[in-house]
Design goal:
The protein is of the alpha/beta class and 139 residues long. It is built from 4 helices and 5 strands. It has a single domain, classed as Beta Polymerase, domain 2. The longest helix is centred in the first third of the chain and has 17 residues.
Length: 139
């Protein structure tokens, strides 16, 4: 999958559904420096969290054309059933500590907090619309 960018270097507006492999293929280039480091971190992080989540939204300088991204912002979508999400949050707290360059937020599916975060992420710092990525849990 080839994502389209605006002249400002951000993704075209919208929520772009991708597999984690699509994301890694698109954003691991060039294959060195901070971009490769962020891709490797995201790949390992995703492998660890996938059993606990429904999906995740990706934002931040990592999903721009910036050659040396600072970080990856991730909003994890958790099932809204209490026994499941309580156990998941405990695991995620531990996993999150290993990935200093990934900023992690988690929300229950369908929550107001998740809707607000998605809305906030869909504009850049100057108020222009931009795109974000959604990675659904592998089946």
């Amino acid at each position: 999958m080839s994502l389209k960018f605006k002249s400002r270097g951000t993704l075209r507006p919208g929520i772009h559904n991708c597999s984690i492999q699509d994301v890694l293929d698109q954003f691991s280039k060039p294959g060195y420096g901070s971009r490769l480091h962020r891709s490797n971190s995201l790949n390992l992080f995703h492998r660890e969290i996938e059993p606990f989540i429904l999906g995740l939204y990706i934002n931040g300088s990592y999903i721009t054309m910036k050659p040396a991204p600072n970080d990856v912002d991730v909003a994890i979508v958790l099932p809204s059933k209490p026994p499941i999400y309580i156990a998941a949050i405990k695991q995620l707290e531990t996993i999150k500590l290993r990935y200093k360059d990934i900023h992690v937020f988690w929300y229950l599916e369908g929550s107001t907090g998740l809707r607000n975060m998605i809305s906030y992420w869909r504009t850049d710092r100057d108020g222009y619309p931009k795109g974000i990525i959604f990675v659904e849990k592998s089946k």
